[in-house]
Amino acid sequence: MDIRFDGKRALVTGAGRGIGRGVAEGLAAGGAETYALDIIQENLDKVKSENPSMHTVCVDLSDWVATRKAVEEIGPIDLLVNVAGIVSMAPFVDTDESTLDKLFDVNVKAAINVSQVVAKGMIEKGKGGAIVHISSVASKKGIATVAGYCASKGALDQTMRVMALELGPHQIRVNCVNPTYTKTDMINHVINDPIRGPALLAKIPQGRFLEVKDVVHPVLYLLSDKADMINGVTLMVDGGSSVA
């Protein structure tokens, strides 16, 4: 399937590494004028050195005002992917307010904030658009020691449904991609754990953890015109673990 994004302007949050970087590079390779947003300048510098055509924006997404200003300065966007996210591990009874605030600030509020600015621009432009949130299988199933993360991803899924309902009449499609454990810096310590790793792998019928490309490809499809009538879905990318 030939997917191109020529003439489109794209924004990817959390694009300094991992899934975000993979999505940003996929969009740029497909012809989109791509903006990579991340909190770590060093990571953005690496992205820029290897992808000279890409624009980079450094901002702390947990800062509502600074984020809003940064996204507004980018200008109209046709394609948005909210990838930026954090995880924190603790038993439910020990999950404190500060941890919950941090998780919701980045995993939910930042996605809402960026999406509001972008969606308003899409509406004003009048040519529609596509938004994809990177959620998680953790929005669908209970996972011990990550109650706050599960809650934040569940909130992101539900936010997506409301966005799809309200923005659909403007021909703006909004969907979530919900991957299982993916080989990224954020998750590698879990995957490589000699006890947890094999136990988690045993729950994936296809018998392997995700590579970044396994998440990137569905995202690019949902952003493309090939998915023109797909709106308001949570696409599980988990090798069948959700039905095992």
Task: Provide the descriptors you would attach to this structure in a database record.
single chain, 244 residues, alpha/beta, 7-stranded parallel beta sheet, 43% helix, 15% strand, L-xylulose/Carbonyl_redctase
Biggest sheet: strands, sense, closure? 7 strands, parallel
Our count of helices gives: 8
Radius of gyration: 17 Å
- Determine the fraction of residues in helical runs and give it as a percent range: 40-55%
Distance between the termini: 30 Å
Mean pLDDT: 97
Label the structural class: alpha/beta
Characterize the overall form: globular
For the secondary structure, the number of strands is 7
Strand line-up across the major sheet? 3-2-1-4-5-6-7
Order of helices and strands: EHEHEHEHEHEHHHE
Unreliable spans: none
Q: Any overview of this molecule?
A:
The protein has 244 residues and is an alpha/beta fold. Helices cover 43% and strands 15% of the residues. The protein has helices at residues 18-29, 41-50, 64-74, 97-125, 147-167, 188-191, 196-201, 212-223; strands at residues 9-13, 33-38, 55-58, 79-82, 129-134, 172-179, 234-237. Strands 3-2-1-4-5-6-7 form a seven-stranded parallel sheet, sandwiched between helices. Helix 1 (18-29) links the parallel strand 1 and strand 2. Helix 1 crosses helix 8 (212-223) and helix 3 (64-74) runs parallel beside helix 4. The longest helix has 29 residues, at 97-125. The chain starts with 8 loop residues before the first strand and ends in a 7-residue tail after the last strand. The model has no long low-confidence stretch (mean pLDDT 97). Belongs to the short-chain dehydrogenases/reductases (SDR) family. Keywords: NADP. It comes from Ridgeia piscesae.
